[in-house]
Write a structure and sequence with these properties.
The chain is α/β, with parallel strands linked by helices and 644 residues long. It has 13 helices and 33 strands. It is a single-pass membrane protein.
């Protein structure tokens, strides 16, 4: 029986399958159709005839949702797109090979609340008529080839909560009337050719709460002092522009800021000591500016600061001892400045994998591995014996096993908890297979006696591993203290729980806060949350832990990602991308050590392969959480047995 014979059909959803071929043009007979979803299949359309199905949908006058992303569509969008029903609320066509211009008549779809046309090859301008879509709350046009300036009519969309036009070739100034969008929580204009100054009106948008990203443009002039009005903002990214002048003290009013990136600009003057007032700041990057003066003594007093990058400036004076006292700081880059005096010997300063101080010629002291000259008047110390090669090889091997076991234990524990939750609770069918309970921070804190030194198993570049006992008192697990990153797992549970409490017509949004770089790409495209996203986070963290590179490293630009970087190295070049300071695999001469290194390489290949399979771009191509757990079991049993 043909689907088109179901004349009263209202919902047609065949997303996340492997259907292929051309979509039939007879779908327009379904006059009562309200929901049409072909996402994540392999359908094709390359010419006007094959796009006829979209034209036929103009007969469906009750249509409210149209989603056809993640397919093999190409060619130009038919102009008939603008003739779809005015009842249409969601239009999502993304991650395809569609080219050509956005139909100028797009403004006819006055009922639209969400418009997603990202991740394709669209060219031309953003139509002025888009300003007629006054019901819009989400507009996503990112990752295309759109050019010219951002139309002033954007300022008419006063209901917008999210505005993303990143990764195009837009130029000209940023329209100041974006400041009219008083409900905006996400603004992303990054990776364009936008010029001029940052409008003060944007800095007055106190509604911005998730992130503001203006990076990789040609913006110049000073950072407006009105930045202090962004009191609810979590992430501010202004990297790689031409901003000059001093960092305004009022930036300290952004008290909930977690990530502040202003690297690659022309900023001058001192680093404001008032940054200490941003208590939740976890990542501060000011690399590659013209900052001078000393490093504020109390930057180390920011209790949540994990990564601090101040390299390639003109900073002088001594390194504040308080940075060494920080218990949260795991990565510190002070290289290529004019710092002098004694280097502390504790905290991050005794972890070579997380520290860089090269290019400061007047430093002294520090731990012996830094090979710095002794400080004047320092007491003579006995020379320590060189570490035997066998120990140099054994230590990173044991460390690698401990890190692997911690990830295995955490993933297995989460998987078992999710199965128990599904069995013990009667949930609506649409959420049953998406539950993924998490271990709460309080449970971890209690199980490890407050991260007691007595439970410390080991330390590495990405945190410490502790022994802990879960609440039932019978199961001991290894817990990796990765702070915000662990929160990426179970994001489906958090958002689905919120979704159950939110009506379908609500205009409220759920914000993903914290480690945004680990969030699956489909969340930015409007996909509903799922365990596929949790698997993506697991894959990215696995790769990062073993190669020592973050997804936001500067090398990952122009289409290169952490996933592709790791995938290209498999299987023969894995040791080339592994953190050489961690694996210490050079200068191996005896057969026993060679055998050990061979085992390490095989283990690394298996782990990186797993990370790559978990972090595929398309959700349907990723491993399931069950398959990932089985594979981690296999890796553990194979290599722990070999070295144990």
């Amino acid at each position: 029986m043909s689907v088109t014979n179901l004349s009263r059909l209202q919902i047609f959803d065949i997303s996340v399958n492997e259907f292929s071929g051309v979509v039939p043009s007879t779908l327009g007979r379904l006059q009562y159709l309200e929901w049409f979803n072909l996402d994540n299949n392999m359908f094709e359309a390359n010419n006007e005839q094959e796009w006829e199905f979209l034209t036929s949908l103009t007969n469906c006058r009750a249509l409210q949702v149209l989603q056809i992303g993640w397919n093999r569509f190409a060619g130009e969008l038919p102009s008939s797109l603008a003739n779809l029903s005015t009842t249409l609320q969601e239009l999502k066509i993304f991650n395809t090979s569609i080219s050509g211009a956005i139909p100028p008549g797009i403004g006819n779809l006055i009922g639209l609340q969400q418009l997603f046309l990202g991740g394709s090859l669209l060219t031309g301008v953003i139509p002025v008529s888009i300003g007629k879509l006054t019901q819009l709350n989400k507009l996503y046009l990112g990752s295309n080839n759109l050019s010219a300036s951002i139309p002033l009519s954007i300022g008419n969309l006063t209901g917008l909560v999210q505005l993303t036009v990143k990764a195009n070739i837009l130029d000209g100034p940023i329209p100041s009337n974006i400041g009219n969008l008083k409900k905006l929580s996400v603004l992303d204009l990054s990776n364009n050719n936008l010029s001029g100054v940052i409008p003060r009106e944007i800095m007055n948008l106190s509604s911005l709460s998730m992130y503001l990203d203006l990076s990789d443009n040609l913006l110049e002039g000073p950072l407006p002092s009105e930045v202090g009005n962004l009191v609810n903002l979590g992430v501010l990214v202004l990297s790689r522009n031409r901003l000059s002048g001093m960092i305004p003290d009022r930036i300290s009013n952004c008290i909930v800021l977690e990530i502040l990136l202003m690297d690659g600009n022309l900023l001058q003057g001192n680093i404001p000591p008032v940054l200490k007032n941003i208590k939740g700041l976890a990542l501060l990057k000011l690399t590659g500016n013209k900052l001078n003066g000393s490093i504020p003594w109390d930057l180390g007093g920011i209790t949540n600061l994990q990564q601090l990058f101040l390299a390639h400036n003109n900073l002088s004076g001594t390194i504040p001892e308080l940075l060494g006292n920080s218990t949260s700081l795991i990565c510190l880059d002070l290289s290529f400045n004019n710092l002098q005096g004694e280097v502390p010997k504790y905290g991050v300063f005794k972890n070579l994998t997380g520290l860089s101080i090269v290019g400061n010629n007047d430093l002294c002291g520090g731990i012996p591995q830094l090979h710095l000259p002794k400080c004047p008047n320092s007491a003579a110390r006995k020379k320590s014996k060189a570490m035997p090669m066998s120990i140099r090889i054994a230590l990173p091997t044991v460390g690698a096993i401990l890190v692997l076991i911690s990830v295995l234990a955490l993933a297995i524990f989460l998987y078992r908890r999710s199965k128990e939750a599904v069995q013990n609770r009667q949930l609506p069918p649409r959420f049953t297979d998406m539950e993924l309970p998490m271990v709460s921070y309080n449970e971890i804190l209690k199980g490890t006696d407050g991260f007691s030194e007595a439970n410390l198993l080991g330390q590495g570049r990405h945190g410490s591993v502790y022994r802990g006992t879960v609440e039932n008192g019978r199961v001991s697990v290894a817990v990796k203290d990765m702070r915000a990153r662990v929160g990426d797992f179970g994001i489906a549970r958090i958002l689905n729980e919120a979704a159950r409490r939110t009506s379908a017509n609500s205009s409220s949004t759920i914000g993903i806060r914290g480690s945004i770089r680990y969030v699956a790409p489909e969340y930015g495209e409007g996909f509903e949350v799922s365990t596929h996203g949790d698997v993506y986070s697991l894959g990215i963290i696995l790769i990062e832990m073993f190669i020592g590179r973050s997804p936001t490293d500067d090398i990952f630009r122009d289409g290169l990602s952490l996933h592709h970087f790791a995938e290209a190295a498999l299987p023969d070049k894995v040791m080339d991308i592994a953190d050489s300071k961690f694996w210490l695999y050079n200068e191996v001469n005896n057969s026993s050590a060679t055998k050990t290194i061979t085992g390490i390489k095989e283990c690394l290949v298996a782990i990186i392969q797993l990370g790559v399979l978990c972090s595929k771009q398309s959700p349907r191509n990723r491993l399931s959480i069950g398959d990932a757990t089985i594979e981690m079991h296999n890796i553990r049993d194979t290599y722990l047995g070999t070295w144990g």
